[in-house]
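[Discussion] Sanity-checking designs against the backbone

I'm trying to build intuition for which residues belong where. Below is a structure token string of 143 positions. I'd appreciate it if someone posts a full sequence so I can compare it with mine line by line.
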């Protein structure tokens, strides 16, 4: 069975959610590439819960050589970070577009950094328009 990778090309901020924390010391835990780690915003209330619920996948490497940690949820494998690729799976480049008027008139794939600030790249990855996300050449590994 082939693993299916899902990527999210939008940044969504959800406020008002807190991790379930029933431990006496107030610690919560999250999955990481090193296993379970203590995290103030973790999804697991105890180290034991994290260890039983943290199912790391095989990971993936995109066409640009970026590596991504993956996690198994049900029968699907999901990436844990925002995509940061500048080419389609076949190696064709995806153009960076910084001008708002040009971006709005596009009918082809493009990417930009959040607020067109390159310093946001390592934080948020690249943001893609619908044409890039929907392009048959694909943005990430997997099907």
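Best answer:
Here's mine. Compare freely.
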């Amino acid at each position: 069975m082939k693993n299916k990778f899902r990527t999210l090309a939008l940044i969504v901020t959800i406020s008002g959610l807190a991790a379930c924390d029933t431990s006496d010391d107030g610690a919560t835990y999250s999955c990481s590439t090193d296993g379970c780690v203590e995290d103030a915003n973790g999804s697991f209330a105890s180290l034991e819960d994290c260890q039983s619920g943290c199912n790391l996948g095989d990971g993936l490497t995109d066409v640009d050589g970026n590596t991504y940690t993956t996690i198994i949820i049900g029968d699907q494998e999901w990436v844990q970070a925002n995509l940061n690729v500048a080419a389609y799976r076949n190696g064709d480049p995806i153009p960076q577009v910084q001008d708002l008027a040009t971006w709005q008139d596009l009918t082809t794939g493009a990417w930009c950094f959040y607020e067109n600030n390159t310093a946001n790249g390592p934080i948020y990855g690249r943001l893609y328009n619908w044409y890039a996300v929907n392009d048959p050449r694909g943005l990430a590994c997997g099907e």
